[in-house]
Design goal:
- The complex is a heterodimer.
- The mean pLDDT of chain A is about 85.
- Chain A is mainly alpha-helical.
- In chain A, helix 3 packs parallel to helix 6 and helix 3 runs antiparallel to helix 7.
- Chain B has two domains: about 220 residues, P-loop containing nucleotide triphosphate hydrolases (Rossmann fold, 3-Layer(aba) Sandwich); about 80 residues, Alpha-Beta Plaits (2-Layer Sandwich), CATH 3.30.70.
- Chain B has ten helices and 14 strands.
- Chain B is elongated, with a radius of gyration of 24 Å.
- Classes of the chains: A mainly alpha, B alpha/beta.
- At the A-B interface, helix 1 and helix 4 of A face helix 2 and helix 3 of B.
């Protein structure tokens, strides 16, 4: 194992986050605050409790997931797309590093950043609403699992993308809508009949439901199913990455 | 000593069906400077990319110091430093961070003194805290070299090292290459500037349309394929060549003021002396003469012309 290489890549990825501190840390804090002002205070004051949880507190896990998904994807996809775009990927490909080491470094870097971000949002949220976390172990487990899974997903997008437009396409057209429709701001029990069923095909529902359960002990779907779905998605991403590395898809001609 | 790089039966067909390399066999000797010459699109960069692990070959095998580049890629790649043609650097990193990153990527422990030496040798030390984006083109090129040297490679690939580089940097680069060779580093450079190969290389390989058409020591190549030319400035213009001189391969310039005699400089009897005697007899007087060896460039051009 070329641990020095893993560390070198990881450090560069982390350095980039701190170099762009405004974009990577301050902006999510501001947008989270805005969500709380709009949804938590303005609208939330007119909504009764959901599942016995005050609306402002109810949306916290969903908001964290929202940022976790989008940031994991954009961090990881950009991290691998950018060297491809400018051509500096030659160095990575000519270095004595295995694909596994490349993955650990890039996905590790992206996941670390989005986990830090999730925790920052949690801290910001704590300033607005009273929070409680009933299952801290599972909270961290869902946080890490989701960050890793979607960083892997972002890595795949970054390798697949040939243009900046494609890089934005999947997050914008698929992930953001799925997240908004995944119960970030409501319980799926509040949806009318048919939509409730349709929603169950949205994988993000399971992530948010499980994550919310770790906070308040209440879930839309059972926690076991949430965990299972997360692991399934992780397995799919690992399988795709394994295939990419086996074939050299869009990395090595 | 055995060769440090051994390429045997390597072919490359891209997904588009383009055959970039047709069965390449090539051995690079330890410690030499090898120039790979060829026109644009001949397959130089593809060949280098295969040895360095950037492009997958379609068939054949490559070993670097005995290590197979697929089975034993870690050992093989650790020995190689690559300076690609394009200037591709993370623009927002500082010079020293960039070089330290490269060293780490190749699994080498941090070594401040070594990195400082590399940066000083390349006149980059003053810029070590500058971001790459602020460097001039020549400085960026130096930084690319510093990255390639950061992990103390035993083999250095320079892909078109002096393309678009000013004279001063070119001289510096050549001096650096010679220094590296003194330290025992094997250097492979691709170029389509023939003067570069002429100035630097121990051996020359010519590649065209994905095939190595010749590998030869530079001196032998120039001797073997080199021609010599003698040019005579005449006192008075000649309307036509005198009959008595017809047995020489002479060329009369359009204005009749210059005669050019091309001959094989390996021949024992190049005929220079007899030509001069015969000129005298024919009453052709000249006021000046010079001779020159054909350059590698002329040899190169004539080689490519012979290719079907």
């Amino acid at each position: 194992m070329n641990l020095r290489a893993v560390w070198a890549i990881y450090r560069v990825e982390m350095a980039r986050a701190f170099r762009t501190v405004l974009q990577s840390i301050i902006s999510p804090v501001i947008s989270t605050s805005l969500y709380f002002v709009v949804f938590g205070s303005a609208i939330g004051s007119r909504i009764n409790e959901i599942d016995g949880i005050a609306y402002g507190a109810f949306i916290v896990p969903g908001l964290m997931m929202l940022s976790l998904l989008t940031q994991s994807i954009s961090n990881a996809s950009f991290a691998i797309y950018f060297p491809k775009f400018v051509g500096s990927i030659y160095e990575l490909l000519s270095a004595p590093v295995s694909y596994l080491e490349i993955i650990i470094a890039y996905v590790g870097g992206a996941a670390t950043k989005s986990i830090m971000l999730g925790l920052i949002i949690l801290a910001t949220a704590a300033l607005f609403v009273p929070l409680r976390i009933e299952h801290p172990f599972w909270m961290i487990a869902f946080l890490v699992l989701t960050a890793v899974t979607f960083s892997l997903f972002g890595f795949i997008i970054g390798i697949w993308a040939k243009t900046f437009e494609q890089l934005q396409l999947v997050p914008l057209l698929i992930v953001t809508p799925l997240t908004f429709l995944g119960g970030s701001f409501y319980s799926i029990h509040m949806l009318p009949g048919i939509w409730k069923t349709i929603t169950l095909f949205n994988p993000v529902v399971y992530l948010i439901s499980g994550f919310r359960w770790s906070f308040y002990g209440k879930a839309d779907v059972s926690v076991g199913v949430s965990l299972g779905m997360t692991l399934v998605f992780l397995a799919i991403c690992i399988a795709i990455v394994a295939w990419i590395f086996k074939t050299g898809y869009r990395l090595r001609n | 000593m055995s060769s440090i790089i051994s390429i045997s039966g390597v072919t490359k067909t891209y997904a588009t069906g383009f055959k970039a390399l047709k069965e390449i066999n090539l051995d690079i000797e330890r410690g030499e400077i090898f120039a790979l010459l060829g026109p644009n699109g001949a397959g130089k960069t593809t060949l280098i990319s295969i040895v360095c692990g950037i492009v997958n070959r379609s068939s054949g095998s490559v070993t670097v110091d005995g290590h197979d580049i697929s089975r034993d890629y870690r050992a093989a790649r650790s020995l190689i430093g690559l300076v690609p043609q394009e200037l591709t650097i993370d623009a927002f990193e500082t010079v020293s961070a960039t070089v330290n990153y490269s060293r780490g990527l190749f699994g080498k422990p941090p070594n401040k003194d070594f990195v400082e030496k590399v940066l000083r040798d390349l006149s980059l030390w003053e810029k070590k805290d500058s971001k790459a984006i602020t460097l001039s083109g020549g400085m960026k090129r130096r930084l690319m070299i510093a990255k390639a040297l950061s992990h103390e490679p035993r083999v250095l690939f320079l892909d078109e090292p002096t393309a678009g580089v000013d004279v001063e940097l070119r001289q510096d680069m050549w001096a650096m290459v010679r220094r590296l060779r003194e330290d025992g580093v094997t250097i492979i450079l691709t170029t389509h500037y023939i003067e570069e190969a002429e100035a630097m290389a121990d051996r020359v390989g010519v590649i065209n349309k994905g095939e190595i058409i010749l590998v030869e020591g530079k001196a032998e190549l120039m001797r073997k394929l080199g021609r010599k030319q003698m040019r005579l400035e005449l006192r008075a213009p000649l309307a036509a060549l005198p009959e008595s001189l017809s047995r020489y391969a002479l060329e009369l310039s359009g204005d009749g003021n210059q005669l050019t005699y091309t001959y094989d400089n390996q021949s024992d009897r190049p005929g220079v002396a007899s030509l001069i005697r015969d000129l005298e007899t024919a009453g052709v007087q000249f006021r000046d003469l010079d001779t020159k060896n054909s350059s590698l460039e002329e040899i190169f051009v004539s080689l490519l012309r012979q290719e079907p």
